Structures
1.
Amino acid sequence: MTLVADGEAHSFKPMKLAVLISGTGSNLEALLSAIDRGELPGVEVVAVGADREAEGLQHASIRDIPTFTVPFRGYSSRTHWGEALLEALRASEFDYLILSGLMRLLPKQVLDAYPNRIINTHPAYLPEFPGAHAVRDALAAGVTETGASVIEVAPGVDDGPILARERIPVLASDTEEALHGRIKIVERRLLLQVLKDLQEKL
Ligand code: GRF
């Protein structure tokens, strides 16, 4: 893809993404809107999946991006769920798999299928506050700063290589929702930067 800006031609490598979500998908929506605005030339989301009937799938379907649901509760084991998830993912070709609020650990067969190609955002300054309740845990710990991180997914819980992270102050008046809202704004910006970096390296 070539764009002409300031009289100069810039080439952008095509980069295809699949995204997995569990919830409202506000970070997914921010990514898709950034693509719509032309902020990530060459980047395309080719599939969005969820482990439940996630409200956020609509952000993809209204843009005619294929969606799929592989309900975790529909399978007798994580391994069987992982097999079904992998089959759904394999229906699309993509360069990176983005976990954008997927509230499940990915099974081994999915991790093995996409080595070094799965990216996760996390609402804390990793390695601080890993796990599913990072914002609540930071508030409970009484810290004055937490943060946002983008990591490469490894088999453990939020312990893969850190690709980007930024500090965010905790305010005395913060509720979990208010703090998480400010963190997500930073998560979204960090993810766009990481995607641009990864695109350069393709
Ligand atoms: C983000 O903070 C993400 O890091 C965490 O879940 C949140 C996703 O929110 N794992 P949303 O569904 O995109 O609004």
2.
Amino acid sequence: MKKTNYIVLVLILIITACKKEVKEKKQLQEMNKISESAKRVRDYVKKDIIIAHRGSTFLTPEETEPAYRWARNIGADYLELDIQLTKDNQLVAFHDDDLKRTTNIKEIFPDRIDATINDFTLIELRQLDAGAWFNEANPEQAKESFKNLKILTLQDVIMIAEGNKIKRENGKPVKALINDTWNGNYKHEKDPNDNGNRPGIYVETKHPKSNIEKYLKEELTLLGWNINENPKQIKIQENKVNIADTNARLILQSFSPESIINLENHLPNIPKCFLLWKADMKGDFKETYAKAIDFAIANNAHIIGTSIAGEPNNYEELTSDWMAELIHESELLIHPYSFDTNEQFMEYSKRIDGVFTNRADLALEFYGRKKIISKDVLINLGY
Ligand code: G3P
Ligand code: CA
């Protein structure tokens, strides 16, 4: 082929590819937008929020007391937790379906190691050590005081957000008895090392078991965190995180479309995030992506939670420029997961509205809010 013919051919191919991209984008741009009432709820949520993913998976055993006390004291805007329902219908903060990765189930219930968390009562779960595994998996971050940590309830996490901790006597958690009976709950006390931050909570319904949303609504209402039903007033201080005393003290999230619908039925007027995961998105990718956004709009969600690519998680890219553009064109917010490095903050920060991060310390510094030595915060908390 002559050189000029070759150049013309290449140009034609480039122009065709560009036209296709423009056409596809144009099709996708003709998308729905969220309703006026959804905008009102969306606007409860502050911009550039720092969401402490499971407290922190980097510095502490995930979803345990040190993880959330650290996240609160360091100044994260939200404590992120995954919610599961126990056999006796209590709500616990726990990520996995089963207990193998992050507890000593092998030692305590050797014949039930494959059972799912829903097969255990709260009293049984409180017998497990949810911290020692971390020391083995992360020797550089290991601490003696991470041993014998408890799986937490939703109530425990809310108590931490409000400046408390589990009450201990002689190092042991104090049981909260009702009519001389213990149902697995502990008492709480004011955290002597609380520094006054009052973050919100960002709650994910995990692998929804039937009716988890109903129990979630009941518990949140009881604890004064359902803004629809007589929410409690939470004391805040100037120059501290104060999300716990706003209409966005609670944000709800789920990968499950069914759960997003159920959450809206039980807990309307509360910001909701529809989480996306590439493996769930079958068929033409751009169409499926647009459909997911449409689902969120149709069901009164306010935020899309997308994965980011790259180390260390190596998730699929669901937060590229065009994807963030589509989400914003629909007037939704975008909160991607999960940030572990400065490079990730630099790459994505301009096109997003908040971050799920295991490094709330790095995020605070990146956004110019605070420079802090994160390990000192743990030491000050007694770990
Ligand atoms: O909730 C956002 C992010 O936490 C989703 O991923 O698996 O860590 O719950 P995962
Ligand atoms: Ca989560």
